[in-house]
Each structure stands twice: as structure tokens, then as C-alpha cells.
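Quick one, C-alpha cells below:
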């Protein structure tokens, strides 16, 4: 019933609306939201599957859910059914979240923090996520005032996004992107997982957050 409006691919128009909303709300350029995984308890899990879906830090077997949504509940990515014995990092390597980027079918949606061009939007993440350009985590050990400020801003934005049910409104605007040919480009995968670019992006965002705060 609601699929056409609330469950569809994120277009370049939607990305620009997210960029605008999160820049206004939190000062982060190029931000698509926050990423995390949720464990859903499976109390009626069959006995023969409990070992696969059980973790020592959970009372019941669980299934992991990963969903990407705007704050007006447009879902552009949903992935679930992975056994609860996995952690967030195991789950990430099974997730199709970045398949469109890796296949070259996501259009360029560049942004320019501190005057530098970055082609891929990113998600705020906690420390378990790898140093990829599509994730921005807080400094684990900030040593300067602006790093301390950035850490506080990143953690505050992550918490706020997870709690709010209003804000980035994009579901009513849908402009399909032109079709592109799918490619198997290993260079894109290396680009997304580039540690040097990840750290440079965080540094540029740190300077940007300091200037706009």
C-alpha cells in the first residue's frame, strides 16, 4: 500500500535533499544519515537454530536488521535475516547497502567540505565500522580542541538522528534518475574503502564544523 511512496531507491534528488537537511540541522556537509544495526529478539526460534542466532550478550536468539531511512520514513535500504550471532562488522560485509555504488549505477553526488571534492555521501558511524570514505566516525582519542568539538558534534548528531521522528523530509519528492549501465568496477570498491580519503574527509569535516559552529 505504501511501497511507492515510502520504500524505493534513493535518487540524486533525494540525496541533495538529505544533504541540505542534515547540513542545516547538524552542520555536516554530504551526510546521508547514521548507520547502525538492530537486533530483533526471536523468542520462538526453533531449538535447532538457537546456536546460530544466539549471542552471549543477548538473552534471546535474534535477527539483525539494517535499515536506511529519512526522518519522514522513506526507506531506501532494508536488509535483515542475518543470524544474530554476527556483529555489525560481519553484517556489513554481507549487506547490499553499497551495491549500486560498486556497480557504477549511483550517480555522482559530490559535496565540497573545506573546498575539497568528495563524490560519495557518508553515514555517521561508531568505532566498529571500518575506515571507509562512506563512514565518518568520531576521533577515538581527540587531542586538539577542534577534534574534541568534532567528536561531540558527531556523537550528538548520531544520537539525535536515532531519536527524532521528524526532520529530513524527502518522501514527497521523487524524480527518477536516468538509467545507467551496470559495470563490475573494482576501482569503485577500492575508492569506497580508501582509508586515506576517509581520514582526509574527517579532517575536512572537522575544519568545516569548527567554522560553522
Amino acid at each position: 500500500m505504501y511501497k511507492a511512496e515510502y520504500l524505493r531507491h534513493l535518487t540524486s534528488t533525494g540525496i541533495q535533499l538529505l544533504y541540505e537537511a542534515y547540513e542545516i540541522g547538524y552542520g555536516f556537509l554530504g551526510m546521508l544519515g547514521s548507520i547502525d544495526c538492530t537486533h530483533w529478539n526471536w523468542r520462538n526460534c526453533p531449538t535447532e537454530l538457537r546456536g546460530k542466532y544466539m549471542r552471549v550478550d543477548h538473552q534471546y536468539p535474534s535477527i539483525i536488521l539494517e535499515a536506511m531511512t529519512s526522518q519522514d520514513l522513506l526507506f531506501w535500504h532494508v536488509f535483515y535475516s542475518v543470524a544474530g550471532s554476527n556483529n555489525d562488522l560481519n553484517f556489513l560485509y554481507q549487506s547490499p547497502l553499497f551495491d549500486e555504488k560498486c556497480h557504477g549505477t549511483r550517480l555522482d553526488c559530490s559535496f565540497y567540505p573545506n573546498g575539497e571534492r568528495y563524490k560519495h555521501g557518508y553515514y555517521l558511524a561508531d568505532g566498529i565500522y571500518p575506515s571507509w570514505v562512506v563512514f565518518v566516525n568520531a576521533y577515538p582519542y581527540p587531542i586538539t580542541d577542534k577534534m574534541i568539538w568534532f567528536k561531540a558534534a558527531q556523537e550528538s548528531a548520531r544520537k539525535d538522528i536515532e531519536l527524532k521522528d521528524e526532520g529530513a523530509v524527502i518522501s514527497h519528492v521523487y524524480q527518477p534518475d536516468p538509467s545507467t549501465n551496470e559495470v563490475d568496477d573494482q576501482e569503485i570498491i577500492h575508492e569506497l574503502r580508501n582509508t586515506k580519503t576517509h581520514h582526509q574527509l574527517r579532517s575536512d569535516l572537522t575544519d568545516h564544523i569548527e567554522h560553522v559552529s
